[in-house]
Design a protein that fits this description.
The protein is α/β, with parallel strands linked by helices. The protein contains 9 helices and 5 strands; from the N terminus they run E-H-E-H-H-H-H-E-E-H-H-H-E-H. It has 2 domains: about 10-35 and about 115-205, Rossmann fold (3-Layer(aba) Sandwich); about 40-110, no CATH class. Helix content is about 45%, strand content about 10%. The longest helix has 25 residues, at about 85-110. The protein is globular, with a radius of gyration of 18 Å. Its EC number is 2.7.1.24.
């Protein structure tokens, strides 16, 4: 864990590779009353009709908006495929907006004892710099593979392509402050989440909303 500097909630980063059970684990924190910021949901909102990213993306990549004014992800993927400079341009639009969304979340929950930043590519994007501690959701490779390939439309090739963009699970686990193993069933994972929450909130009473 990083040394604490100043007031405000303790920030726990939550991450994990595809098929590890990260979304289910984030819901466990939420059920315990811990505010959770879902970075994927924030991106979906930015891309949706009227979303903050739509106009800038459409200006840079003409023709990627759908009939409702939202970003058509299939068209956008085609526009950046095999073009690193185009991907960099897209990231230059989206990443600052994603960071702003997380900053707004932290401001809204300034009185909480603990908050969670649920970020799939936490380590890959340097997001751990905003966190006091990191929890990695993990499971053995054979369980991960079975879970992912059971998803509708998923193929071996698509799974391999996704893994190629993600830091290896072993490296994530080595860097984490906490590892939540979902291979033993979700009740066991929920017990581990409760233990982590208890450890991180010990002696940290919530403050009234907005009180720093």
């Amino acid at each position: 864990m990083r040394p604490r500097a100043g007031s405000g909630p303790l920030v726990l980063g939550l991450t994990g590779s595809i098929g590890m059970g990260k979304s289910a684990t984030a819901a466990m924190f939420s059920r315990l009353g811990v505010p959770v910021h879902d970075a994927d949901a924030a991106v979906h909102a930015l891309y949706g009709p009227g979303g903050a990213a739509g106009a800038a993306i459409a200006e840079t990549f003409p023709g990627v908006l759908d009939a409702d004014g939202g970003v058509d992800r299939t068209r956008l993927r085609a526009a950046v495929l095999g073009a690193p400079e185009r991907m960099a341009a897209l990231e230059g639009i989206v990443h600052p907006l994603v960071r702003a969304a997380s900053t707004d979340f932290l401001a809204r929950h300034a009185g909480a004892a603990l908050v969670v930043l649920d970020i799939p590519l936490l380590y890959e994007t340097g997001g751990e710099a905003r966190c006091d501690a990191v929890a990695v959701v993990s499971a053995p490779a054979e369980i991960q593979r079975a879970r992912v390939l059971a998803r509708p439309g998923m193929t071996e090739a698509a799974f391999a392509a996704i893994l190629a963009k993600q830091m290896p699970d072993a490296e994530k686990r080595a860097r984490a402050d906490f590892v939540i193993d979902t291979s033993r069933g979700f009740p066991a994972a929920e017990a581990e989440v409760a233990r982590i929450v208890a450890q991180l909130t010990e002696g940290r009473a919530p403050r009234p909303d907005g009180e720093a």
